Amino acid sequence: MEPHVRCDQLTSNLDMRHDSDPKLVECFRFVTNALKAKEFYRRDVQYIVRNGKALIINELTGRVEPKRRWSDGIHQAVEAKEGLKIQADSVIVAQITYQSLFKLYPKLSGMTGTAKTEVEKEFLKMFKMPVIEVPTNLPNIRVDLPIQAFATLRGKWQYVREEVESMFQLGRPVLVGTTSVESSEYLSDLLKSRNIPHNVLNARPKYAAREAEIIAQAGRKHAITISTNMAGRGTDIILGGNPKMLAKEIVEDNVLPFLSHDTPDVETEGESTSHKGLSKIKLGPSSLALLAKAAIMAKYVHKSESNEWSFQKAKSAVMESIEMSNTIGLEKLQERVAEVTEMYPLCDAIALAYATVLKDCEIHCFDEGAEVKTLGGLHVIGTSLHESRRIDNQLRGRAGRQGDPGSTRFMVSLQDEMFRKFNLDTEWAVRLISRITDGEDIAIESNAVVKQLLGLQINAEKYYFGIRKNLVEFDEVLEVQRKHIYSLRQVILSGDSESCSEQIFQYMQAVVDEIILGNVDPQKPPKTWDLAKLLDELASLGGNLLTETFKETQEEDLQSSLEQILRYGSVEVDNFVLPNMPVPPNSFRGIRKRTSSAMRWFAMCVDDTSKKGRYTNIVNLLRKYFGDFLIATYLEVLQESRHHDAYIRGIEREALLKTLDMLWKDHLVNMNKLSSAVNVRSFGHRNPLEEYKIDGCRFFISMLSATRRLTVEALLRYWSSPMESEEIFNTADQ
User: Fold this and answer.
1) Nearest 5 degrees, angle CA 116-CA 120-CA 124?
2) How far is it, in rounded angstroms, from Cα 342 to Cα 337?
3) Cα-flanking dihedrals φ and ψ of residue 668, to 5°?
4) Can you spell out the DSSP letters for 557-617?
């Protein structure tokens, strides 16, 4: 069936005339996400598929991030595209930007080797942190060769292959940096076609699990390493190799086959690193003898054990032995072994073998490192300019560490992803290159072309800085709300029982105030107020609790009561009760209860947010009466329940937290939708940020109001029907 026919069938029951139709909006979201997943999210670039799951690749570090998922249905669209099981959409329960998170710390500092770029201004503007350059320990003698440009991708990759081959024949170690899993494996296939041994380090598990081993030998003679972005790898490439890592590999290769017959899982243990083309490490007679002894001990332990050792268990035992060797040292190990006769523990045998092999590896790596230095050190090849010069510098910085010699070269194509993304005038560059050469694999080092490419990279950095700046400005709105919510949660969690009760009382008074102020106008006389609706809304708050109380109260009763107050002119506020209206149960007994009532009355009198008028005092008395009545009814229900105070406080805390967390979660979703939609208002010559602030504030006020209302309803109904209270939460959650 043709795709457009299938789409027509799916949308045939939708009303296309009304763009507010929820089904149409949902369908539009699905179609948009499907198009994004198809065109913008590429396998082995933005994500990989492993064990039936789509896993995100961090484009800055080249690492898989298994716990991350794209939001707004994008991840589900990618799963549908790959034919995977579609997981539930991720729910945001809390969020914070890195910038806002860092600002929470009283002191902030950092260390990096790439801050002296365009990002220096960003550090100062965002975090008020100047960048101070620390002199290098040893002079930098690395040679950064000019950028070479190619007209086509094919020409670039052919030249990269030739450059790697020439360096391999010379004996220099080479590190090739790529921007994606796809490009690293493409280059790997090119090198295989020329029988050039190499190792690949990218987000695929069979390579990522062996990251330390691959990096350990990346500085050895004839070593060729293809890696995705090197940011965050955190391991120096030592010329001549890393003796500790090489010694560990030798011990594992000699012991693990005898300790476990399991085949290692490539997904978790990684694919074995390639040693082809590398010089063989010469082990002395003592090392060979101790390795043989450790292998015999491993074989003996394997046969004597009733249960078969798994590969993971065997590897853990070897790692523990190596850690012990690093802690104790060779001399103490020899003393421990000398105290035992023929057979000594497997752990000691492996540790002693490792310590002896390490000595041989150190000698070999030192000699080979000196030889590599005479050849020119590590040669780094960058196959594309990144969207930030910092990442390019991180790749360059792998060569020439601690005063070592080295060289770097960037080879770029006009068809690279970054140039296509930021609309480089490739026709101009291609015409310029075609005037110089006809071959697509001929490198061009023209200053005009290179200047154009570097200028585009600077524009890309400015573009992403603008995105981050815009994100921070939008998050400042949410940060104020976040601080308020988190401080409120902290009061609920850490406050004593009295503070928790006072919070409930304030919620009840606020709910009553909203109902009253929504039905009365202090600038108009009481006879114009909608008192019937007011009584109905108040009675509906507590289910049967208040309905029974006000079932015989009519609008006329409340009207005459208010007129009577107007005739009297003055009332006693402390024990105020509306004439001819029900008296609050038990009134307010105890100094704390009376103090709470007085504080709420004072807050009403000084409230500048509510509407003022000739009848403001009458409105405030109405607020006080119904607020006190609701709280007194609640306290009476608590007394009748005969529950312990600890149990009651627990229920109150649960209601407060559950409603707050639930509605805050919904608020975050609404704010994310608002931030995505508000940019459209710029077409109407409105400032999107200002519009976001206005609507975000309105959303937040509405969320707090809903939190108070739902909490009060849940608590009032809980004592009469716990199941009914639970239904309130479930309905609001849906």
Assistant:
1) 145
2) 9
3) -65, -40
4) HHHHHHHHHHHH----STT---TTSPPPTT---SHHHHHHHHHHHHHHHT--SS---TTHH
Q: What are the distances in angstroms from CA 676 to CA 631, 662, 670, 691?
A: 42, 22, 10, 12
Which residues neighbour 349 within 8 Å (Cβ) at sequence distance 6 or greater? 290, 293, 294, 297, 321, 337
3-state secondary structure 110-171: CCCCCCCCCHHHHHHHHHCCCCCCCCCCCCCCCEECCCEEECCHHHHHHHHHHHHHHHHHHC
pTM, to two decimals: 0.73
Q: Which of 109-123, 295-309, 684-698 has the lowest mean pLDDT?
A: 295-309
Q: How far is CA 286 from CA 255, 293, 559, in A?
A: 16, 10, 105
Question: What is the b/e burial string over 479-498, where b = at least 16 CB atoms within 10 angstroms of the residue's CB?
Answer: bebbeebeebeeebeeeeee
pLDDT in tens, 481-539: 999 999 999 988 887 877 888 888 889 989 988 888 888 888 888 888 888 888 888 88
Between helices 346-375 and 330-338, what is the axis angle to 10°? Answer: 150
Counting beta carbons within 10 angstroms of the beta carbon of residue 192, is it exposed (0 to 12), middle (13 to 18) or buried (19 or more)? exposed
SS3 readout for 626-677: HHHHHHHHHHHHHHHHCCCHHHHHHHHHHHHHHHHHHHHHHHHHHHHHHHHH
Report how far apart, in Å, the C-alpha atoms of 258 and of each of 156, 268, 339 are: 47, 20, 26
Contact 657, 500 (CB under 8 A): no
Other Cβ atoms within 10 Å of 272 Cβ, number:
13
pLDDT in tens, 108-157: 888 888 888 778 888 888 888 899 988 888 898 999 998 888 878 888 99
Spatial contact of 222 and 277, defined as CB atoms under 8 Å apart: yes
- Starting at the edge strand found earlier in the chain, the sheet holding 53-57 runs 47-50, 53-57, 64-65
**Which of helix, strand or coil describes residue 19?**
coil
Position with higher pLDDT, 303 vs 115: 115
Residue type at position 402: Q
Pick from 701, 672, 507: which is nearest to 93 by CA? Answer: 672
Paired strand residues for 413: 150
702 to each of 312, 411, 643, 667, 692, how far by Cα in Å?
Answer: 55, 56, 34, 9, 15
For residue 57, the cross-strand partners are: 64
Question: What 8-state DSSP symbol labels residue 273?
Answer: P
- Percentage of the chain exceeding pLDDT 90: 17
3-state helix, strand, coil in the chain (%, to 5): 60, 5, 35
The encoded tokens of residue 301 equal 């332990």
| Residue pair 447/432 in contact by the 8 Å Cβ criterion | no
Exposed/middle/buried for residue 705 (C-beta within 10 Å: 0-12, 13-18, 19+): middle
What domains are defined for the chain? 3-81 (3.90.1440.10), 242-368 (no CATH), 511-642 (no CATH)
Sign of CA dihedral 315, 316, 321, 322: positive
408 membership: H or E segment, kind and range: strand 406-413
For residue 437, what pLDDT is reported?
59
Tokens of 223: 């070593």
Contact between residue 216 and residue 242 where contact means Cβ atoms under 8 Å apart: yes
H or E element in which residue 35 lies: helix 22-39
Q: Using pLDDT thresholds of 50, 70 and 90, give the confidence band for residue 613.
A: confident
List of residues 6+ apart from 694 with CB closer than 8 A:
none
Residue with tokens 């709105």: 477
